[in-house]
Amino acid sequence: MPASVHVVAGVLRDAGGRVLLARRPVGKHLAGLWEFPGGKCDAGEAPVDALARELREELGIVVESARPLIAVPHRYPEQDILLDVWQVSAWTGTPHPHEGQALAWVEQGALAQVEMPPADRPVIAALALPDRYLITPAFEPDALDELLAGIERACRRGLRLVQLRQPHWPRARLADAARRARDACREHGARLLLNGDVQLAMVLGLDGVHLPARIAAGLAERPLPADRWLGVSCHDAAELLHAVRIGADFATLSPVFPTPGHEHAQALGWERFAELVVHAPMPVYALGGMEGEDVDAAWMAGAQGIAAIRALWS
Ligand SMILES: Nc1nc2c([nH]c(=O)n2[C@@H]2O[C@H](COP(=O)(O)OP(=O)(O)OP(=O)(O)O)[C@@H](O)[C@H]2O)c(=O)[nH]1
Ligand SMILES: [Mg+2]
Asked: What is the number of structural domains in the chain?
């Protein structure tokens, strides 16, 4: 089997947050579809250099600053590719179609409706997800008010993705908490996912669910509609693969570092984390021993960002 082709592409946003797409010219692979500008790495060329070269050739701009967003392995009938997408945060020049391709600035929320290559689907998820994912700490059921106050505080600090996780609470109490947390999150434009309980999440109209690995293992297909978020906790290559199979939108992969309460688990470290994530065609959060300042390291290892209890709670 030929090795996969390394493709780099850039996400450029205008002042209004719209994303630049280019239309693949007639006669090329996947002609007519809209894509993120970019192309194949030359032999021996570093991805960041290839990105700069492709965006200069295709758009006539000079990349000043970029960081990895997501790398998606994808198998086309013609070839296997690794679609390595970067967020370009600064450039000079104005993007022009240097190769006769049509260009369009598209609202983030409209991307899912645009005809893009199949490999781009996880990229749209990555663009819609934040770089920090809060998981609530364990509370006693009688500390519901304290839990909600913490969620409020987190939203006010800018957290935009929250997992309500209280696996030992009675269901009625959990439903109370989820309802109130849902309203608090909504008020701040944050999404609330419920750990483990698909049915309750649907009844309450939450933004989605996050499944522990052992629950995901019992599923053969996606347990909720496409307009909700499905996150899955993973710890190895097999669990990541299974999460993809059941249509997860994203995963957490842990533990990157040792954490109290999980001393028995073998920590992955960044190197192993990166090896596992590059095979996963979905956004993956780094979890386990994360600190707020680890977001950069997580990006460099191919992660969407960090997931944490302690570090994001206070
Ligand atoms: N640039 C880009 N390519 C993508 C995206 N999604 C996706 O599946 N691809 C695939 O990745 C490959 C990129 O090849 P390309 O044709 O753009 O390469 P290139 O710019 O170096 O052009 P060339 O090989 O014609 O010189 C194609 O098979 C394309 O279909 C995307 O969002 N952007
Ligand atoms: Mg190209």
From this structure: 2
